[in-house]
Write a structure and sequence with these properties.
By secondary structure, the protein is of the alpha+beta class. Helix content is 22%, strand content 31%.
Length: 119
């Protein structure tokens, strides 16, 4: 769920539940778990990928996004971060909440059959 705080200087509430914050030139947005308070907000399902140190993961985001678009017809968003104590780069992937199980299924299929992945 995305929460918006209007005004460049008005930060969203930050706590242990906030996964990411981002802003444009007008407002901040926070990615956080759905608390059920606003049924009008768009809901997203999230997946997380952590990559081991030294792994060249360049192209992964584009490759998997293309694969999901081709198989499920959905777009998604990706928020990347880095935690050197936990292997380095990690990604949060967001998709429409109604497609989360389908997205996870495609990822499991790709992991179970790596030769089926495009070269």
């Amino acid at each position: 769920m995305l929460i918006h705080a209007t005004g460049v200087y008005l930060l969203p509430r930050l706590d242990e539940h906030v996964l990411a914050v981002i802003r444009d030139d007008e407002c901040w947005s926070a990615l956080r778990p759905d608390d059920g308070s606003d049924k009008g907000r768009e809901r997203f399902g999230l997946l997380s990928f952590h990559f081991p140190p030294g792994l060249d993961n360049s192209g992964f985001v584009g490759w998997l996004a293309t694969e999901l678009k081709k198989r499920l017809g959905t777009g998604l968003f990706v928020v990347c971060g880095s935690n050197s104590d936990h292997g380095g780069i990690y990604d949060y992937w967001g998709c429409p909440v109604d497609l989360l199980d389908d997205v996870a299924g495609v990822i499991r299929e790709l992991a179970d059959h790596p030769t089926a992945t495009p070269s």
